[in-house]
Write a structure and sequence with these properties.
heterodimer; A: 138 residues; OB fold (Dihydrolipoamide Acetyltransferase, E2P); 14% helix; B: 437 residues; mainly alpha; Helix Hairpins; 0% strand; rod-shaped
């Protein structure tokens, strides 16, 4: 299978390249009020809305840096659309089929963690509405 | 009545007695019958007549001599008031007159002596008063002289101290004149050095101007280089941007090729190559960018250094100009100071001359003060001697007063008639009492 490898918070993540719709840059992220804490907003690309997720924070390994003009990976499968912001994009890598979400394999000197957009979506849906800080205060 | 000598008296008396005796003997002889008897009676009568006549005559003479002797005794006892009787008409009369004259002379002399004694005492009293005044004045003079001597001594000390101070002052002024000369010399040296410094500062300013000009000329290419490098940087940024776009494009092409499956494998290879080229060009552009940034940084550092150097040179130029101005002002001040010091030197020289004259005057004054002190000492001694002499005179006058008193006492032994009493006895006593105080 073809994996799309990117780096976030010192961790290499890999996602099936078939889920990757585009890699874009210089697109404005519009924030959404009362959204979950790792839900960064919406972007509009060629007539479609993509929900931008802080993949690093969502997977519990830190927080996206979002500095400069980051590249955004647009994921699209069935009727769902997500956008994640990596620190750096490594490229495509052909590997043998792996088991699925959170599988870790070694490529060269690096360990790569496999993620699926469904899992990202699922975790996103589990998040409470509104900022974490506010919900904790309540 | 005429005067008769004793001899004539005796002759006349003897003839009268002889006549009487002759008459008596004639009568007796006439009467008497017996011759012897008559002779005896005549002899007896003659003897009796001789005895009576001799007795009367001697008694008269003795009585007058006794009277004269009594008068002489009274005179010898100091009674000069008695008048000498002039009873005789013979040679005793001369004696009486001489004695009376002697007594009268003695009386006059004693009276005169009394008067003289009184005058002596009066004079003594006046003299004693005068001597007292002289002694008092002498004591005052002595005090004044001592005071003058003390003042002279103090004056001498002050004059000596002042002379010493003047000498010290003169020495200091000499030193000051010497230092003034040295200062003038040093001021001239300083002026010379300031002139040299001013010339050198002017030359340094000229050199700095040239250096600045050269630096400005040398800096221009660097600024031009910086501008060119900036342009290169912009081009590199564009290249980098293109590389990024190419990379993104190739990445998306690879994704599309992957999605196309087997049909897109060839395209995926091309996309990979393109991405590889984009990454290479990106790395190259990054390297160029790094080099350009290094060049820019170096150029910036050099420019900053040059700017700083220029600023430093400008500051140095300003500083040197300031130093130049300071040198000019210093030169002016040094000239002023030099002229002022010269004036001070001249004035000090004049002051030294005047001080020397003053010192000479002070030495003269010191000498005069010494002389004055010695004179006052001598005056003190002379005054003391004078007072001693006056005391001796007073003692002599007291002795004289005592002698005059003694003379007065001696004179008091003589009794004079009231008419011949001199002055008032009470006054004389008062005089004698006051004179002997």
């Amino acid at each position: 299978m073809e994996l799309f490898i990117f780096n976030s918070a010192e961790e290499y993540l890999g996602i099936d390249a078939n889920y990757v719709y585009r890699v874009v840059e210089e697109i404005k992220i519009t924030p959404v009020p009362m959204a979950p804490p790792y839900y960064l907003g919406l972007i509009y690309y060629r007539g479609e809305l993509f929900e931008v997720v802080d993949i690093v924070g969502l997977l519990g390994s830190g927080k996206a840096k979002l500095k400069g003009n980051p590249r955004i990976i647009l994921l699209k499968w069935s009727d769902k659309k997500l956008a994640v912001i990596p620190d750096r994009i490594s490229g495509l890598l052909w590997i043998e089929d792996k088991k699925g979400q959170d599988t870790i394999f070694t490529e060269g000197n690096h360990s790569v963690r496999l993620i699926t957009p469904e899992n990202i979506w699922k975790r996103l849906l589990e998040l409470p509405y509104g900022p974490t800080k506010i919900s904790e205060d309540f | 009545m005429g005067r008769t000598s004793i001899k004539n008296k005796l002759i006349l008396s003897f003839l009268a007695l002889l006549l009487i005796v002759t008459v008596v003997i004639s009568v007796i002889n006439w009467v008497a019958t017996d011759f012897l008897l008559s002779q005896a009676i005549s002899t007896a009568l003659a003897l009796a007549a001789g005895i009576v006549f001799g007795g009367i005559f001697s008694k008269s003479l003795v009585n007058r001599l006794k009277s004269l002797s009594d008068a002489a005794r009274e005179v010898s006892h100091g009674d000069l008031s008695r008048e000498i009787p002039l009873l005789s008409r013979d040679e005793v009369r001369d004696l009486e007159e001489i004695f009376a004259k002697m007594v009268d002379d003695l009386r006059n002399m004693i009276s005169e002596m009394k008067n003289v004694s009184i005058q002596i005492q009066q004079t003594n009293r006046s003299l004693l008063d005068f001597v007292k005044k002289i002694v008092k004045r002498g004591e005052e003079i002595d005090q004044l002289t001592k005071s003058i001597a003390k003042g002279s001594e103090e004056q001498t000390l002050i004059v000596q101290k002042t002379a010493i101070s003047l000498d010290n002052g003169l020495n200091q002024m000499d030193e000051m004149v010497k230092q003034s000369s040295e200062t003038v010399s040093k001021a001239n040296e300083a002026r010379l050095q300031a002139e040299i410094g001013e010339n050198k500062a002017s030359q340094t300013v000229k050199h700095l101007e040239e250096v600045l000009k050269q630096m400005s000329e040398h800096t221009q290419p660097m600024f031009r280089l910086a501008n060119k490098v900036e342009k290169i940087k912009k081009v590199i940024n564009i290249m980098d941007d293109i590389a990024q776009k190419t990379d993104l494009l190739s990445l998306n092409a690879s994704i599309e090729a992957t999605r196309a499956g087997e049909m897109g494998k060839g395209f995926a290879l091309v996309a990979d190559e393109i991405r590889s080229m984009a990454e290479n060009s990106k790395r190259s552009s990054q390297d160029i960018k790094t080099m350009v940034e290094d060049i820019l940084e170096d150029n910036k550092t050099a420019t900053i250094a040059l700017t700083k150097s220029e600023e430093g040179i400008n500051r140095g130029r300003e500083t040197i100009r300031s130093i130049l101005n300071t040198f000019s002002e210093t030169l002016k001040d040094v000239k002023d100071i030099s002229s002022a010091i010269k004036e001070v030197e001249e004035v000090t020289g004049k002051q030294v001359i005047q001080m020397r004259n003053l010192s000479g005057h002070f030495q003269e004054l010191s000498r005069l003060a010494d002389k004055n002190f010695i004179s006052t000492q001598k005056t003190t001694v002379a005054t003391k001697n004078q007072i001693d002499d006056i005391v001796k005179i007073a003692k002599a006058m007291r002795s004289l007063t005592a002698l005059s008193e003694k003379m007065m006492l001696t004179q008091q032994r003589f009794k004079l008639s009231a008419a011949r009493q001199p002055a008032s006895e009470a006054a004389l006593e008062t005089i004698s009492e006051t004179a002997l105080d």
